[in-house]
Amino acid sequence: MKLLILDAGHCLSLALARACSQRSDTELVTDPTIGVERDRLESLKPDALIIPPLSRPFSVTPAAVIEHAELVEACMEACQDVGIPLVWCVSDQLYEDGHPTPIDEHVIPAPRDDGLRRLVKTGDRIRAECPQHLIVRVGPLFALEGTHSWLGELLDTMVIGESVRAESDLTLCPTSADAVAMALIGMLQQQVCGADAWGSYHLAGVEPVSAYTFVCMVRTQLNTRLEGRGEEVSLGEVKALSHHHDQPLRRVLNCRRVLEVFGVHQKPWRLEVGRMLDGWCEARDADAASEQGSST
User: Is the pLDDT of residue 294 over 90?
Assistant: First the structure.
C-alpha cells in the first residue's frame, strides 16, 4: 500500500512516517506542501491521499481557515479526477458548542463561527461529491515534534519556567498523533483489501479530561521524571482559565464506530503521554552526552 500525506512537517505526518518506517507493507510519500496537483497524483498513484488536520481552527485567522478549506476542496477535485480516495482529518473544534453526551459520527457539526462553518461546507462537498472518502474527526493531537504538536510545545514552555494556561471548564479527549497514524494505516489497509467502509469516523483518545487537568498531569509526570534523574528544574506553573462560565463545555467524540467497523481501539492518553515523556528524557540524555563528548 502506498500513501501520500501532505504538510510533511505536521505532527501527524511525522507520526505516520515513523509508523510506516517500521512496516514492510506500507510505503509513505510525504509532500512539504499543503496542496497537490492532479499530475502528481497521476504519477505517484497512491492508494490514498491524506490531509492532516488544521489542528486549532478556532485559534487561527479566518483567512488561514478559508485557505485550508479551499486547498482541501482542490485536493478532493484532483482525487476525483484521478480516482484516488481522500482522507481528511478534521479537528473536533468544529463541534463548537460541544454536547453533554459523547458525539456520534452522524452528528454534522453546526458551529456559529464563520471559519468553522466554512470547514463544514467543505465536509458537505466531500460527502456529496467524493464517494471514496474518509473524514476522520480527531481530538486535540499531541506529539513531541512537528507543527501542532501540543505536548512538545508544553514541555518546551515548562522547562524554561514559563507558565501555561489551560481551560478548566473544557472537557475533551487528548489524542496521540502516533495512535492516529497507526489507526489510519489499519483502516486504509482494510479499505485496500476491499472493506469499502467509506464515510465519517471519530478517532480520539479515551478518558475525557479537562484541558487544565491534562496539562497538570503532563507537568506532574515531567517533574517526577526529572527528579528521578537527579535534575532540579523549576518548571513553569499551570494556570486555570475559565471561558465557559455559564455551562462547562464537553467536546467528547464517540469512537464506537471505528471499533465496530475496523476494530480500532483508542489508546489511553496517560499511557501515550508517559511513553512520549520517556522518549523525551532519553533524547535529553543523548543530547547531554553529545554535548559532553564534544567539549572533551
Answer: no
Cβ-based neighbour number of residue 233 at 10 Å: 14
Task: Determine how many CB atoms are found less than 10 A away from the CB of residue 251.
Answer: 24
Residue 87's domain is classified under what CATH number?
3.40.50.720
pTM of the model: 0.93
Containing structural domain, residue 111: 2-141+174-205+251-267
- Residue 169: which residues within 8 A CB-CB, separation 6 or more? 210, 242, 243, 244, 245, 248, 249
Distance CA 85, CA 91 (A): 20
Contact 136, 201 (CB under 8 A): yes
Interval 168-188: pLDDT, tens: 999 999 999 999 999 999 999
Contact 201, 260 (CB under 8 A): no
Q: What is the pLDDT of residues 250-271, one digit of tens each?
A: 999 999 999 999 999 988 999 9
